[in-house]
Amino acid sequence: MAIDKDSIEKTLSQVRYPGFSRDIVSFGLLRGIEVAANGKVTIGLAVTTADPAIPKKLYADIEAALKAAGVNDPEIAISVTVPKNAPAAATENKAPANAGVGKVKFIVAVASGKGGVGKSTFAVNLACALARALTEKGQPGRVGLMDCDIYGPSVPLMIGINQRPEMEGDVLIPLENFGVKVMSMGLLIDEDAPVVWRGPMIMKTISQFASNVRWGELEILLIDLPPGTGDAQLSIAQSMALNGAIIVTTPQTAAVSVALRGAAMFSKVGVPIIGVAENMSYFEGPDHSRQYLFGQGGGLKVATALDSELLGEVPLDPAVRQGGDHGIPIVISHPDSNAARVFKSVALTVLQKLATAS
Predict the structure, then answer these.
(1) Tens digits of residue pLDDT in 265-293
(2) Is the pTM of this model over 0.85?
(3) pLDDT of 176
(4) First CA to last CA distance, the chain
(5) Does the pLDDT at position 326 exceed 90?
(6) Domain count, the chain
(7) Distances in whole angstroms, Cα of residue 8 to Cα of each of 20, 43, 44, 54
(8) Do 193 and 282 have their domain in common?
(9) Helix %, strand %, coil % of the chain (to 5)
(10) Shared domain check, 231 and 338
(11) Which domain covers residue 69, as residue numbers?
């Protein structure tokens, strides 16, 4: 392999930051690469951490990667900045005290028993509607959205975010758009990269989203769960002190039966059901007539069976799909549409129910 800056950077892009699945190059830690005429390679890195084990591990991993690529005796300089108010020394790779969900007032899961019901679309629009409602109350920037759909992370596309999150020490800084702070696997991997992971790796990533992301002070954090009722969903429900869950379904019988099975998981772990949302409820024609393309009343059936409330029926509106494709949710792009009004109503109902329950 030819030893030049490009090849060195490619090699370094294979070195992961300790405790994360993302590499040091995409995290923006690399500060310089020099290749002298005699082949001497010098690497500069800058990290912010209170854990002395982090730079040691980085040094060893970088040295091993470069030697494997044919670089002899690389010179590696790592500049370390200790975060303010951090302990002078740390013996474990822990996130700072202000990371994670400690300052989040309410944590709500958005769940469905099956895929294809528009759960992520619902979660994105609900998050934007919540952000607008809180901004009107003088609480801007108090909504977070954690995309835990590891295999199909579509939230970044739908909310118009395509940058990489920055990192301070051991903590990821969520990106923000439309007043919603977002963290997603889609922000940490290449767009076309498949996620071929087993359960333990998925759970480690989800755990990092909770404890190694600086969410700050939030009124509400929505968690977009992956479809189904597997280990990931159960572990989140058990470990994240959820204040409640919203079940998303569509009207047809197949979706209703699976939604009920998905909701049963929450009852087993003591998480209350805030309510049920029916997505793609009907199509409204130019004459305002309604066509129930997928049947009718499925959401109400689920809510009744769960002894809960039907939060709203979201119509099948092409603008919802267009908003998701273009990264501008319908709550933002068409705030006066019927679909946007439903999301706003659901947001206000959710806030009221959480406040009453607390």
Answers:
(1) 887 777 889 999 999 999 988 888 889 88
(2) no
(3) 95
(4) 62
(5) yes
(6) 2
(7) 21, 9, 12, 21
(8) yes
(9) 35, 20, 40
(10) yes
(11) 5-81
